[in-house]
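Supplementary Text 2. Reproducibility record for the structural model of the 601-residue chain.

All settings were left at their defaults, and a single model was retained for analysis rather than an ensemble. We include the record here because the model underlies the residue-level annotations in Supplementary Table 4.
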Amino acid sequence: MQKGKNMKLKKVQIHNWNGKKFEFAPKKLVYVFHENGYGKSSLLNALRYGISGSLPKGAEIRDCAVELTEAETGLDIYRERVAGSTTCKIGGPDGNRMAEKQLNAKVSEITGVSPSNLQVISSSDIFAHMKPDEFLALLLEYLPEEFTFQDILSYMPALTEEQSTILEQYLCPDGFPFGIYALDVCRDALTDTRKAKKATVKQNEVQIAAMKCEPAARTLEEVEADRYDLEAQDRMYADNSARLKEYEIAKKKRDDQEALIKKCEDWLLIHSVAEPDPETLKACRTELAKLDQSKSAALTTRATAETTLKSLRATLTNLESTVCPISKQLTCTTDKTTVKDEISKAVATQEAALKKAEEEIVAATARIKELNDQILAEEKQAKAYNNVRLTQEKVKTLKDTLPVLPVKPIAAGKTDIAERRKALEAEKQNILNGVMKSRMEAMNRKLTDEIAQYTVLIDALAEKGPVKQGIVKHYVEDFESVCNAHAEHSNGYQISFKLDNGIKVYASTPASKEPVYYMGLSSGEKIIVTFLVIDMLNSLTGMRMAFIDNLEQLDRQTLEYVHKTITSKEFLEGYDHVFVCGVNNHDVMEVFNDKTGVTRV
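Retained model, structure tokens:
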């Protein structure tokens, strides 16, 4: 739980927010009682925007401005919305522009609340999220801490090493802590990957079904050998001796090329060099250029200081003499102490400048040498790496261009070559289809296994999965204790949270000592429970500002009780401002008729 500092507003100015304009100096209690359509929701959304920069989801907000003046620090926050973008300033509309992130940091500094928790919540927000799954999602938004990868693993003890590796790659590749919503981002990414893998499996299954192949009786190498033999017979030379010589020449060329390949590969084994980082060399050269400039400037400074010192020292020497430097006869009796002091100070200044320049020259010279050595080493590594790369390319080229040996001369048979060629081609294609089918089936088995691993992770990160359920279960007791700490002053109310397809809110009330599910409470009881939930959420974030609305839904007795509660010292001590909103019907206006201590908008 966080404890916020104060953020007392001295003045609120809202211009053209959905056509509404507000300007008031809020006290701790602010009453907004008007007919429907007056702009109570606009006031809430504008204040949220002014404090945190957040906008209502799906709303088109433009051509408006919110200015908030903080009472104790005098901070003047100004946010203006024009053409779909926000401009932030400090000091009002004519103040200094500032990035929104920086402005939020200033607000956080005053409130003691982190930028991610600068949220102003109303009772309407609570009413709108009381279904178990929606209330769970709402509470997840207010979890006060970040998680590590090990925290998440603790909720999935049965996770395999393979699943853990996959999860870490998606959830925290940089190793830094993350918020609760990183789990949703991770789950979406896992789902997208699983979807792609399923699509690949389906495509492979279609191709596998289309492949026609019988079990192969021979290997592809055996078939290819027959094909080569057949082609050799088809190209049989009349002169076997000439063909044999051609074979021997090709054999020698192949042997020589294979020997060269081995020589290159042996060289590569003992000349392994890591690929240099071009950015390192670039950074060295950039720094060297800057140092050259710095050294040149220091040399100039040194020369200037030396010249100036020479002149100043000569002047001091002349001042020591009492003989007029012009006439060489007259005696000067003028007191030169002040002048000599000034020149002595100038000499000291120049000597300091000279010393600093000398130090900078020495430092720059040393660093330049280091950089030149480093550049030389980087260039040497690049050259060595280039030699390795060229040798690797040479090996690849030699392998790709390895001569194919002609078939040794044999006597031509009487077999029908055309029929044999056709049969061998069909046999080869059958083998290739079988190999491709086996590979695709193996790929599908691997993909199916991976899909199962991803499904385990996706299910674990679901809203009702063990991770979020475990996190929420961990925090439920904290949530309850904060609610019930405030419930001590609420005349017999006791709150409990139960995990049931989300989180269900139960309350013991003055009318029922047995806990009643939120949906079964009366309107007045719901308002009280909502107060307690708002208090709890604000305790989680440290915010000291709340909106309580829809008072017109309460009967007279409940209105009086609510008025007594929200004006009590115990309730108000936790807030800088409480905005109380409702339709201005007869009962509301009679009960909330405070003459002092409130601001009416």
